[in-house]
Amino acid sequence: MNYVSGCFAMNYRILRTLHVYSSVVVLALVLFFAVTGITLNHRDWFSDHGSAVEVYLSVPDSVMEATDWQTHPLDGADTLRRWLSDQHDLTGGTVIYDWDNDEQLLMIDIKRPGGYSLVEFSPFSAEVTVFHQRNGLIAVMNDLHMGRYSGIWWRLLLDVTALIMLVFIVTGLWLVVPQKKRRGTLFRVAAAGTGVLAAGYWIALLP
């Protein structure tokens, strides 16, 4: 009996340690998601429309010679994008290339949290036009909350955070089980919270 009690006490300490440290690890991100959940739900509270800038650049010979632009324009598109990234700090989480055959124009749509850049490049004039749209800090935070245009590393961070939060929730429930006096009340409260969530979900789907 003492052995069983000792094992239970040890497991309880391990679970409590996991519960405490998992909450500390994700504390900042949980606070971030709590705040941005409000900003996403009330976008009309924030009037920052951001700023728009258009710049014109001359493309160097190294980019012009990257491909035969007349027959294989998309082959040199990534070279142009890397030049813009290295020399003009033009970065983003999602990049889309498109070639307009009628206009003989390469377009690069570069999306990032809180803004985007649209690149238009004419291989025959060796000039590129870049339109930047920046929508402010709140827009950046909202896009990060949704994982939009944020790149692989941010999405990986979101996945790791979700796993740690799962550990936090499961260990919290498991710690409740031995508490005979309080677990009934705690489980009823959890059930009530789940019921409110389900009701809210059902109401949101009503026509």
Describe the 3D structure.
The protein is an alpha+beta fold and 207 residues long. It is 56% helix and 19% strand. The chain contains seven helices and five strands; from the N terminus they run ααβααββββααα. A five-stranded antiparallel beta sheet has the order 1-5-4-3-2. Strand 2 and strand 3 (105-112) form a beta hairpin. Helix 1 (2-25) packs antiparallel against helix 6 and helix 2 crosses helix 5.
Q: Output mean pLDDT.
A: 84
Helix content: 55-70%
Number of strands: 5
Number of helices: 7
Structural class: alpha+beta
Main beta sheet: strand number and arrangement? 5 strands, antiparallel
Q: For this entry, what is the oligomeric state of its chains?
A: single chain
What shape does the CA trace take?
elongated
CA gyration radius, whole angstroms: 26 Å
> Are there runs of 5+ residues with pLDDT below 50, and where?
1-5
Distance between the termini: 59 Å
- Residue fraction in strands: 15-25%
